[in-house]
Specification:
Layout lengths: L7 E10 L4 E3 H5 L6 H8 L3 E3 L7 H16 L8 E5 L10 H9 L6 E4 L5 H14 L5 E8 L10 H4 L5 E10 L4 E9 L7 E2 L11 H6 L5 E2 L1 H23 L8 E4 L4 H10 L11 H4 L6 H11 L8 E8 L3 E8 L5
Parallel strand pairs: 4-5, 4-6, 11-12
Antiparallel strand pairs: 1-7, 2-3, 6-7, 8-13, 9-10, 12-13
Helix pairs in contact: 3-4, 8-9
Bound molecules: oxa(dethia)-CoA.
């Protein structure tokens, strides 16, 4: 008789990429009616990376993916599945996941996109672990990428100052050693979807000359409403993910929150009765990179030596939908 043991997923590779061009708050002062002081005080953002003219969402994703493959000492044909989280793809069709697959030369490997806004990468990680734990796939590339600088209205100071372009990627590999996604929660409240929206360009309002004149194909956000929503969901979603993992906050070494606004992170720390230094923060240098924000922060802090692969991490995100996602992750097994 053959008895199959439980299958876990370990993260064997990780990589991130941010475009070279940096746009500072002072640069923005020359574009819209804003100030470095306002942006720093209200968001904690000092600068963000913006893609160059020859870069696309898929090219950002591919850079992060090559770095993750190199770290894992793998080639692209070792992958069984590619998941790309983004809300700013190269095209509506074809899916950017297939373009990433083609650019990596991962011939015939299945690939799909997850579009849940800023929570996309945590959603994708949860999906990847389901495929790993059922034994369906053994090596999964999970990318979070965003090129929102091409989707924001550069005349709208309430949004264009917030976002940055970047990509982060990990490779989840099957193992028999306990580790991986120890607990997670995903949620959605579509009744409030209008708070973060690209109103036109989809089936509800196809692109036409009026849309172009209005600029309603650009991203629109009701910042204060999103702020309130974020403050409401971060604590409970974190508690629920921890409860599902059978852990408490004391077991967690680092919290990696979605990097949307420093004030939201500070409010979460207060709400959770935790010191701010338990939170991984890089919003000052990258702004809000939406689905790329958590993998970017993760990769940067693992490569910098702050996060150890055996640390228990709490990932918590919120965004368009409205959606939320929290997960407890241990990248690699002990010992
Ligand atoms: O990742 C997706 C999830 N997104 C988020 O989590 C975003 C959450 N929301 C936020 O981060 C904040 O709401 C913002 C940073 C977007 C805005 O900050 P706020 O403190 O909520 O400002 P507000 O929208 O209430 O605006 C306050 C004032 C307004 O002026 P009046 O009406 O009081 O005269 C705005 O016109 O600040 C003004 N304002 C600005 N002033 C200078 C808005 N944007 C700017 C700006 N520079 N860039």
């Amino acid at each position: 008789m053959c008895v199959m043991g439980k299958i876990y997923g370990q993260i064997v590779g990780w990589g991130a990429y941010a475009p070279k061009q940096v746009l500072t708050n002072h640069d923005l002062e020359r574009i819209v009616d804003t100030s470095d002081e306002w942006i720093m005080k209200r968001t904690g953002i000092r600068e963000r990376h913006v893609a160059g003219p020859n870069e696309t969402t898929s090219s950002l994703a591919v850079q992060a993916s090559w770095a993750a493959l190199a770290k894992a000492n793998m080639v692209s044909t070792d992958l069984d599945l590619i998941i790309v989280a983004t809300s700013s793809p190269d095209y509506f069709t074809p899916p950017v996941s297939s373009q990433v697959q083609a650019a990596l030369g991962a011939n015939d490997v299945p690939a799909f996109v997850v579009v849940t806004g800023c929570t996309g990468w945590v959603y994708s990680l949860a999906i990847a672990y389901q495929f790993i734990e059922t034994g369906a796939y053994r090596n999964i590339l999970v990318v979070g990428v965003e090129l929102l600088s091409r989707f924001v209205d550069w005349t709208d100071r309430s949004t264009c100052i917030l976002f940055g372009d970047a990509a982060g990627a990990v490779i989840v590999q099957a193992t028999d050693q306990p580790c991986g996604l120890l607990g997670f929660v995903l949620g959605s409240d579509g009744t409030n979807g209008h708070h973060i929206i690209m109103p036109s360009g989809g089936s509800a309002r196809p692109f036409d000359a009026d849309v172009l004149a209005e600029g309603s194909h650009y991203l629109r956000m009701n910042g204060p409403e999103v702020f309130k929503f974020a403050s409401k969901v971060v604590g409970p979603a974190s508690d629920e993910a921890l409860a599902k993992a059978g852990l408490t906050m004391d077991d967690v070494k680092w919290i990696i929150p979605h990097q949307a606004n420093m004030r939201i992170i500070q409010a979460a720390a207060k709400d959770m009765h935790l010191p701010l230094d338990r939170f991984v923060v890089n919003i000052d240098r990258y702004g809000n990179t939406s689905a790329a924000s958590i993998p970017l922060a993760l990769v940067e802090h693992v490569n910098g030596g702050c996060i150890k692969a055996t640390d228990k991490l709490l990932l918590v995100s919120f965004g368009a939908g409205m959606t939320w996602a929290a997960a407890v992750l241990q990248m690699q097994p002990e010992g």
